[in-house]
Amino acid sequence: MDQLITIKSIEDILPEYRNTPIGLLLEFQNLNRLFTSYSEAQLLVGMCMDNRKHLHIPENFAYIIRSGGANLRYSEFKVSYAISVGKIKHIALIAHNNCGMVNLHARKNEFIQGLVSSAGWTAEKAEEHFTNFAPLFEIGNEIDFVVAEAKRLRLKYPKIIVAPLHYQVETNRISIVKE
Questions:
Q1: Residue 112's domain spans which residues?
Q2: Do 47 and 126 lie in a common domain?
Q3: What is the overall mean pLDDT for the chain?
Q4: Within this chain, do residues 110 and 132 fall inside the same structural domain, yes or no?
Q5: Helix (H), strand (E) at residue 92
Q6: pTM to 2 decimals?
Q7: From CA 145, how far away is CA 67, in angstroms rounded?
Q8: pLDDT of residue 173
Q9: CB atoms within 10 A of CB 103
Q10: DSSP secondary structure code for residue 103 in this structure
Q11: Nearest to 146, CA basis, from 111, 100, 96
Q12: All residues at 6 or more sequence positions from 159 whose CB lies less than 8 Å from its CB, including other chains
């Protein structure tokens, strides 16, 4: 994981993120910065739907879109809303280790059996569902994906600062991903 910049002090935050909402997110999460009050969101956070992740941020600090693998491809209207109506100028994309959207094919049988036993689907319907949608949501390597997704969003929204970040589930710490 030499592509990750560990944040143990303010000086570890890259200059382009320091004194921005992205830097504040890192300070709140990793450095226990004292909360201040916010009446409006300061940034948009795109992060995985995984239940093991929890952000330590003040109320009203961020819009948060949770989607498998922090994949915002199918949430672009929500991203556009946060930018246009919410006046957001910063996006923090947070991937994490041990993500279920990595190597989805290896979980195909578990996926199908889960829909059969828990949702009452037929095996055929569940397999068709997996086959149709898994390629859309497979992210490959989480580090490579979050960097590619940040680049894609920068092209779509050129005035917005987009930071690829990585959440370590075991420590609840966020690192910056070097590009």
A1: 103-138
A2: no
A3: 96
A4: yes
A5: strand 90-96
A6: 0.93
A7: 13
A8: 97
A9: 12
A10: T
A11: 96
A12: 89
Amino acid identity, position 46 = G
Cα separation values, 109 from 24, 68, 98, 113, Å:
42, 19, 19, 6
Q: Are residues 98 and 73 in the same domain?
A: yes
**Could you tell me if 90 and 170 are in contact, meaning their C-beta atoms sit under 8 angstroms apart?**
no
The whole-angstrom separation of Cα 27 and Cα 124 is: 48
Query: In terms of C-beta distances under 8 Å and separation of at least 24 residues, what long-range contacts does 70-77 make, across chains too?
Result: 70/46, 70/94, 70/95, 70/96, 70/145, 70/146, 70/149, 71/101, 71/137, 71/139, 71/145, 71/149, 72/46, 72/149, 72/153, 73/136, 73/149, 73/152, 74/136, 75/46, 76/156
- Domains contained in the chain, number: 2
Give the C-alpha separation, 43 to 173, whole Å. 18
Shared-domain flag, residues 43 and 123: no
What are the pLDDT digits (tens) for 51-100?
988 999 999 999 999 999 999 999 999 999 999 999 999 999 999 999 99
- Within this chain, do residues 118 and 165 fall inside the same structural domain, yes or no? no
Both 132 and 61 in a single domain?
A: no
> Which residue type is seen at 17?
Y
